[in-house]
Design brief:
It holds the Pfam family PepSY_TM. The chain crosses the membrane at residues 16-37, 151-171, 192-215, 334-359. InterPro entries: PepSY-ass_TM (IPR005625). Keywords: Membrane, Transmembrane, Transmembrane helix. There is one protein chain. By secondary structure, the chain is α+β, with helices and mostly antiparallel strands. Helix content is 50%, strand content 12%. The chain has three domains: 1-46 and 130-225 and 332-382, no CATH class; 55-122; 249-319. It has an eight-stranded antiparallel β-sheet with strand order 4-3-2-1-5-6-7-8, with helices on one face. It is elongated and about 100 Å long. Mean pLDDT is 86; it is low at 230-238.
Length: 382
């Protein structure tokens, strides 16, 4: 195949990827850009839950009592999370008669947000509600239950192909490659923007597409990297996270909250309390987490005996974990977060400019065909 024929083939691949997937790429890209700073976005979208009066905290039992007073009788407390970065105390509760949502996914919990100094209720909301949660589900599964995650993963695979073909088409056919960096390569502004933005975002977008596909297909990519884990906890594998998420907190634990915290503190070396998870019908142990330096320290408290044991440290490394950090920018610094933000905005711009370019090409091709047809139909003049 000649270079010209290969270029035409890559052009068709690149064009149809953009046209067919534009309606999906735009919401995925914009939601990903917004979620780079999801904490700040949540503060803007839900100012009431962040209307705290200070950072001083009280005994967790005070927060437990305040949350119970705000919840219905059918709610069971599942977890208390102490505030971070000047935020509220968060209490999560699970309906007693329901194991999970009817369409799958994580169970819907009732979240109670409390003012740390006063334990005043700031807001009560469902865990699946709000703008930030909507964007998370949109970006992770396009709001499509069941197969949405796989659809997003395949879009990531196709976007990697689009990045490669886009770079191929960007490369100038005449002269040095540096000519491609010029803005005015075409008389139309949208075409110039498509070339320019496409070049500068190609590599970051390839990385974001790869990491997104990795997150969507962890078993496949994990097997390639040697990090594949058995599903469902069978044969000594990892616990079934979905089943654990659907577990119901015990209605009346044997150990009082104060006793649990006191026993756990003996293994925490004075670290501040981070969260308390109630025992469930699947794991009859309390889990108390402390915000120690380096990594959190988790302590298990047996609900029947009150014995405290240090929980095994969760693995911090691994390619899969790095892929997620790279994709969402967690602890990656402001520079990479800005790159991710641009990697969300610019694909939407490329999709729009690509559609404009395609529509204009249809117009001049139709005009050219009309002129050729008129020329053929005109009588020959001697």
């Amino acid at each position: 195949m000649s270079t010209l024929a290969m270029r035409k083939a890559w052009f068709q691949v690149h064009k149809w990827i953009g046209l067919i997937l534009a309606i999906l790429i735009i919401p995925l890209s914009i939601s990903g850009a917004a979620l780079v700073w999801h904490d700040g976005l949540d503060r803007i979208a839900n100012p009431a839950r962040y209307a705290v009066t200070g950072t001083t905290t009280r005994d967790p039992a005070v927060y437990l009592a305040a949350a119970k007073a705000a919840l219905g009788p059918d709610q069971r407390i599942a977890q208390i999370t102490m505030p971070e970065h000047g935020g509220p105390v968060t209490v999560a509760a699970t309906p007693a008669g329901r194991a999970g949502p009817p369409r799958g996914g994580p169970p819907v919990r009732t979240m109670v947000y409390l003012d740390p100094p006063s334990a005043r209720v700031l807001q009560v909301a469902a865990s699946n509600g709000g703008l930030v949660r909507f964007l998370h589900v949109l970006h992770g599964s396009l709001q499509v239950p069941g197969v949405g995650r796989q659809i997003v993963g395949w879009i990531g695979v196709v976007m990697m192909v689009s990045c490669f073909t886009g770079l191929w088409l960007w490369w100038p056919t005449v002269g040095k490659w540096a000519r491609g960096l010029r803005y005015r390569r075409h008389r139309n502004t949208d075409t110039n923007l498509h070339y320019l933005f496409g070049f500068w975002i190609a590599l970051p977008l390839f990385v974001l597409s790869l990491t997104g596909a990795w997150i969507s297909f962890p078993q496949f990519f994990g097997s390639l990297s040697g990090e594949s884990r058995p599903r469902g906890g069978r044969g000594g594998g990892m616990p079934d996270r979905a089943a654990m998420a659907r577990a119901k907190p015990l209605a009346a634990p044997a150990q009082p909250l104060a006793v649990v915290i006191a026993h756990a503190a003996t293994l925490a070396a004075g670290a501040p309390l981070k969260s308390i998870a109630w025992p469930t019908d699947r794991t009859p142990d309390w889990t108390v987490t402390f915000a120690a330096k380096g990594r959190p320290v988790a302590v298990k408290i047996a609900d029947d005996t009150g014995n405290a044991t240090a929980a095994p440290a969760r693995p911090q490394g691994g390619i899969g974990r790095w892929m997620r950090r790279i994709h969402d920018g967690t602890d990656m610094g402001i520079v990479w977060q800005v790159v991710i933000f641009a990697g969300g905005i610019l694909p939407a711009v490329l999709a729009v400019t690509g559609i404009i370019m395609w529509w204009r090409a249809r117009g001049w091709k139709a005009e050219l065909k009309r002129k050729l047809k008129a020329k053929r139909a005109a009588p020959n003049v001697a």
